[in-house]
Amino acid sequence: MSHGAQMPERPIDLARLLATPIDSSVLVDRLRTVIDPELGIDIVNLGLVYGAQTVDGVAHILMTTTTPACPIGSYLTDAIRRALLEIDGLFDVDVEVTHDPPWSPDRMSDEAKVELGWAR
């Protein structure tokens, strides 16, 4: 019993319609508030963040840990979710942990190296 307009095949995703694009620099700035509890330095300066972008209101973070057996991996992913969900317009956070390429101290910023006493 159709009288004119048909219903869309799938429901309209209201969150997607309302999502405001969030620049990756905003994500990276918030990620600087996530501190590695063992080293006392943020995950961006440690070089643990490989990528950060938003798609349809979801932040997608690609990161690594200093070693595959790092015991604080779940702590960091939870801290990332808490930090990013404070951003207006984000509806969810997806954190993917990879070890390809493996992390090395070369990925750290000069600031982090100085803080750890590895450079002057």
What does this structure look like?
The chain has one domain: GMP Synthetase, Chain A, domain 3 (2-Layer Sandwich), CATH 3.30.300. It has a three-stranded mixed β-sheet, covered by helices on one side. It has 120 residues and is α+β, with helices and mostly antiparallel strands. The protein is elongated and about 60 Å long. Helices cover 26% and strands 19% of the residues.
Keywords:
two-stranded antiparallel sheet, about 120 residues, alpha+beta, GMP Synthetase, Chain A, domain 3
Secondary-structure map with pairings?
Elements: H1 14-18, H2 24-31, E1 35-36, E2 41-42, E3 49-55, E4 58-63, H3 73-84, E5 92-97, H4 110-115
Parallel strand pairs: 4-5
Antiparallel strand pairs: 1-2, 3-4
Poorly predicted runs of 5 or more residues: none
Distance between the termini: 77 Å
User: Number of domains in the coordinates?
Assistant: 1
Helix content: 25-40%
What shape does the CA trace take?
A: elongated
What is the average of the pLDDT values?
87
CATH class: Alpha Beta
Q: What is the CATH topology classification name?
A: GMP Synthetase, Chain A, domain 3
Short précis:
By secondary structure, this protein is of the alpha+beta class.
